[in-house]
Amino acid sequence: MVNFSGQIAAISAPIVTGYIASSTHSFAAAFATATANLLIGIAGYIFLLGRIEPIPEPAEKSAVK
Predict the structure, then answer these.
(1) Angle formed by the axes of helices 28-48 and 2-24, nearest 10°
(2) Alpha-carbon distance 43 to 52, whole Å?
(3) How far apart are CA 26 and CA 12, in angstroms?
(4) Smallest Cα–Cα separation from 40: which of 48, 52, 28, 29?
(5) Which of 10, 17, 36, 37 could lock 30 by a disulfide, CB 3.0 to 4.6 Å apart?
(6) pTM of the full structure
(7) Domain segments of the chain: what residues?
(8) Would the CA dihedral through 50, 51, 52, 53 be positive or negative?
(9) Sign of the C-alpha dihedral computed for residues 15, 16, 22 and 27 taken in this order
(10) Higher-scoring residue by pLDDT: 65, 21
(11) How far is it, in rounded angstroms, from Cα 15 to Cα 33?
């Protein structure tokens, strides 16, 4: 799912940029849209991801002989 989402974003970004630049005859709105998308991603990373901690290694079981 992560790779799929990344590929959809990579495919759609130049298409959306082209449509915005063609309709406004300027790249300013396209850059503003990209900036808004970036800020939403940063906010999601900060507020939705939570605390990142290392996963503890499992304790080795003692060998019973």
Answers:
(1) 150
(2) 16
(3) 19
(4) 48
(5) 17
(6) 0.62
(7) 2-48
(8) negative
(9) negative
(10) 21
(11) 13
